[in-house]
Fold:
Amino acid sequence: MNIFLNIIISVISSIVLFFVMIAVLNEDLTPYFIIVILCGVIIGLLITIYRKLIEIHKNK
Structure:
C-alpha cells in the first residue's frame, strides 16, 4: 500500500506541475501528458526505494 501511495502522490504532483506549465507557456503540450504520468510513476518508485534503503540502514 505504501508503494501505491507514493506512486499516486507523485503522479498527482507531476500532473499539477504539468497543468501549471501549460498555463504559464500557453502552448499545446498535450502530447507530453503520458510522459508526465510516467515520470510521476518513476519518481514514486524512486521515493519508495529511497525509504526502503533508509529503513535498512537504520536497522543495522
About this structure: The chain has one domain: 2-59. The chain has a mean pLDDT of 82.
